[in-house]
Amino acid sequence: MSAAPGRRGGSGAAPSGRRRSTGRPLSHAPSRPVPAGTRSGAGIRPEPRRAVRRPPRVGGAGAASRRPLVTGRAVLLAGLVLVLLLTLAGPVRQFLAGRAELTRLAAEGTALDQRVEQLEQQLERQADPAYTARQARERLAYVLPGDRLVVVVDGEAVEGDAGTVPEPVAGELPWYEALVRSVAVADGDAEPGE
Fold first, then answer.
1. Tens digit of pLDDT for each residue in 149-162?
2. Is the Cα torsion angle 177, 178, 182, 183 positive or negative in sign?
3. Is 96 inside a domain boundary?
4. Higher-pLDDT residue of 3, 153
5. Is there a domain that residue 52 lies in?
6. Which pTM value belongs to this model?
7. Where is this region: Disordered (predicted)?
8. What Cα–Cα distance (Å) separates residue 67 from each residue in 22, 135, 172?
9. DSSP 3-state assignment of 62?
10. What is the number of domains present in the chain?
11. CA–CA distance, 24 with 7 (Å, rounded to integer)
12. Which pLDDT tens digit goes with each residue over 26-57?
C-alpha cells in the first residue's frame, strides 16, 4: 500500500492495523464543508472503533471459557436412555427366552421324528416272518420240528431232540419230587431213608 501524499512516515499503517489520523484534510477531498442532508459520504470519515473491554477472568486463565462437564441436558438424556433400557429389558429377555425355547423344541421335534422312523422300520422288520423266526430261535431258543437243539450246561454239551424232554436217569427223582420230599423231611413227616 502506498503512502498518501502529505503524510509523515513511510509505514502507512498504525501498529494497531488502522491508519493514523493526521488531522489534515485529504488531498482528494473537497476543502469546503458538505451541506447537511446530502448523502455524499466522500468527506465523511468513519468513526474510529472503540476498544471493547472484556471483564477480567476469575479463577485463572481459561476458567470462564470451559464448559461444565455435566450439563442439565446431558443428565436428562442419560436419564431417558436409562429409562428406555429398563423399559426394554423385560421384553428383550422374554424374546430371547422364547427363541431359546423354540430352538429346543425344534431339536426335540427332530429327535422325535428320527425315533418315529426307527420304530416304523422295526415294525416293518417284525412283519417279516423270517425275521420273527430268527428272533425266536436266538432269544427264546425255539427250534422247528426235526432240528437238533444243543444246550451247554456247566461247560458240558447236552444233546437232545427238539421238542423232547430227556428221560430221567434211574434212581434219580425229578426236581419237583425232590423238592416235595425235602419239604416233607424238614417238617418231620417222613424219614430220609424211605
1. 777 766 666 565 55
2. negative
3. yes
4. 153
5. no
6. 0.34
7. 1-65
8. 46, 91, 116
9. coil
10. 1
11. 9
12. 666 556 666 666 655 555 666 777 777 776 66
Over residues 60-113, the pLDDT tens digits come to: 555 556 778 888 899 999 999 999 999 999 999 999 999 999 999 999 999 999
User: How far is it, in rounded angstroms, from Cα 15 to Cα 169?
Assistant: 146
Looking at residue 63, the DSSP 8-state letter turns out to be: T
For 102, the domain range is: 72-119
Rounded to whole angstroms, the Cα distance separating 129 from 125 reads 9
Q: Answer whether residue 139 shows pLDDT above 90.
A: no
Rg (CA), the chain: 61
State how far the alpha carbon of 158 is from the alpha carbons of 147, 148, 155, 172, 176, in Å.
Answer: 14, 11, 9, 18, 21
Q: What is the pLDDT of residue 142?
A: 84
How far is CA 118 from its chain centroid?
Answer: 35
What does the pLDDT look like over 61-70, one tens digit per residue?
A: 555 567 788 8
DSSP string, 124-190: HHHHSHHHHHHHHHHHH----TT-EEEEEETTEEEEEETT-PPPPPTTPPPHHHHHHHHHHHHHTSS
Which DSSP letter does residue 84 get? H
Whole-angstrom distance, CA of residue 1 vs CA of residue 13? 9
Taking the alpha carbons at both ends of the chain, their separation in whole angstroms is 158
